[in-house]
peptidoglycan glycosyltransferase
Amino acid sequence: MAPGKGSLTTKIRHLALAIDARIDSGLYTLGARAGEAWRAWRDFTDRFAVSGFRKVAVDLSCEALTLGVGAGVVLVALAQPAFRLTEREDWLKQTDLAVTFLDRYGVEIGRRGIRQNDALELNDYPDYFISAVLATEDRRFFDHYGIDPMGTARALTVNANSSGVVQGGSTITQQLAKNMFLSNERSLERKIKEAFLALFLETRLSKQQILKLYLDRVYMGAGNFGAAAAADFYFGKSARDLTLAESAMLAGLFKAPTRYAPHINLPAARARASDVLDNMVDAGMLTAGQVASAKRNPATALDRKRDFSPDYFLDWAYDNVRALAEAGKLGDDRVLTVRTTLDPLAQRSAESAIENALRQYGSQWGASQAGTVVMEPDGAVRALVGGRDYGASQFNRATDSLRQPGSSFKPYVYATALLAGVVTPTSTVVDSPVCIGNWCPANYGRSFAGSMSLTTALVKSINSIPVKLSIMLGKGNARIGRARIIEVAKSMGLEHELRDSTSLPIGSAEVKIIEHTSGFAVFANGGFRARAWSAAEIRTSHDQVLWLHDRDAPPPVRVLPASVVTDMNQMLTKAVEEGTGRRARIDGVRVAGKTGTTNAYRDGWFGGYTGNYVAAIWMGNDDFSSTNRMTGGTLPAQTWREMMEPLHRAVRIRPLPGVDPAPPAGASQNLPPAVASVADAAVRADVVSAHSAPALNDIGALFSGILKNQAGRAAESTGQQAPGDRRPARASPRAGALNAAACETGVSGNASRSGSRCG
């Protein structure tokens, strides 16, 4: 071994030994010092050692301190979200909307949001009204600091003895905190936030300010917030002029404003007012003699029932206004007047048609509910019915319910195929078995019809063709084809997620009525996206215009070319005139549309449109039970016609894009040639409406009858038949009556046996 190498190895060993020695010495010293410190701490704590009763007390105190610190940490953590609600400097500002709705002609149709009046000062209220509120809601209001443990204990005792909730434990300050910052959620977390916020309010506001805010913002039923608004709504007077009986009735609303609303349940409201009067006596605020008169002569509320209240439409329109406000498009104003798109005639027509249909035929067809949306081709909603009875169910089936559309979804499939150029209306398609995996769709009649045109396939609602079109769109891959169908359907208005499945082309994906209507509106308006809208104009309480739809709404976007719209309109017109939608036909008006029926007859649809209006109607049951074999072409199509036919009276009938207008019913029948040409020309020139033509027909027929009678009398003198008289020469008056009845009803009977023909 080289001398240099050995000496280096020796040095490394010595260094390692030195490091190890230092580590060992350091650890030993650290351990010794730690032991000394522990012995010193033990000797110190031994001085505090106790035994016997003192030990029990100390242990309990330590546990309480530990739990208290832990609870404090939890409470502070839970209070942080509550305190964040007060970070804004304008936390006192009322942010809820108060909206008055007008129809398209400027007539008030209802209100939504709050109905508030905070113009009264606290001293303006009668003393007995303030006493009634305090006696019922918070007797120790002026003695506590936002939280009242004594009041809470009293409420718990009373409720326990009564086996129910008779008194509430929340103070007025806590209730104000909930109304201003929190929701009605029943949870421990909310109660903790409520307590902290009550303490916050007590430190920032005086008792008088808290009571004033409470009386201004408490909900008192029927959309009224605040005692002043409630006094005006229920009694038609200022809160300054309330009687003792009326004050007791209003104070009784705080507990359950809907249950005790006097315009809904006057007996319950009077019973509750009697309890409030008893509370005032128990609290020493009034004597039994002072309240006796109010008990003998209870208050009576105004009758606030209205014959016309489009509540489903108002709910939806209010949501739209709130969305605009949340988007910052209405500024800071919260008291608004909205002129809507609603047409009272259309709304009444839709409501009556649905109610009449379900009342007369609902049990026969096994259908108990319906919903519909009527809009103009640009998306302006003229009528909306979300159910049969708003009082029984506020669920809006027109805007919130999701139901399978069945074959009424097929127009989206056909439009996608036409848009992609894989077929044309005259293309030959084959109705034959087709399967995707283990799923093989069948037609309504459980048979296949073979070769036919694409138009015929849609008119007859053949199920195999849409499935084959999805395969063609995907060039053999049905999934890709369905993705293209979903893309087009969404662009046309079906905004809700469409669940992809093999049966999507025949209507298995759920849709909303209002979105389905918007989709059909694309065909009616020439190919533009038609978003449903309700607010034509929004103004402030100072009459300042905040929103104009024509000015502020985004312009419509074309989603289908005019050529595709023309092809679809021509095919869907035939679906009504020759196919499953024949019951939706309107005399003198070209109607296009498509029926829809789902598996087990759970849903019946008809989506249809004219040049003037678009509407989709759904009928079925809320529990998804089957109907009595009701198809879209039966009761739904019939009801659609009943609600749409009145809307086309005395209006100029607009043509459908790409479809020749229908000749007005009776425009030139039985008219002399000169009169007929004048009538037809007047309709074409828009001098008269299409539905005025029958009046011209009646006038012309009257003169024609006079001329025929004169000619008949002249012919009788010569024994010849009058010119133009097509009756059999020896037909009796009774036979003529039978012939007329047969032609009117479509039943041949005796008329056919006599050789007569209906012209």
Q: What stands out?
A: The first helix runs from residue 3 to 46. The CA atoms of residues 337 and 541 lie 7 Å apart. Confidence is low (pLDDT under 50) at residues 664-677, 683-691, 715-759.
